[in-house]
Amino acid sequence: MVMTILLLEKFISNGYYDVTEEYGCENTKFRLNCNSVRKTIVIFDGIFSNDENFFKIHNIPCKNSRRSIRNCKTCCSDKEKIINDNNYDNDNDKIIIGFENETNDYNNNNNNFEEIKFKHLITKRCSGVNYCTFVFDEDYEESKKIGPGGVYIRYACVPDTIMKKTCDTYLNVSEEEGFARTPGYPSYYVGETNCKWMLKSSPLQRIKITFLDVSIRNVAPHEMDCLDKIIVSENGLNLLTACGDSFENVVVLSSGSSLNVSFVTQSKNLFPKRGILFHYKEDGYLYERNESFVHFKCCHGFVFPDTLSRDKILQCQNENYWNGRILDCVSE
Question: Is residue 25 part of a domain?
Answer without folding.
Answer: yes
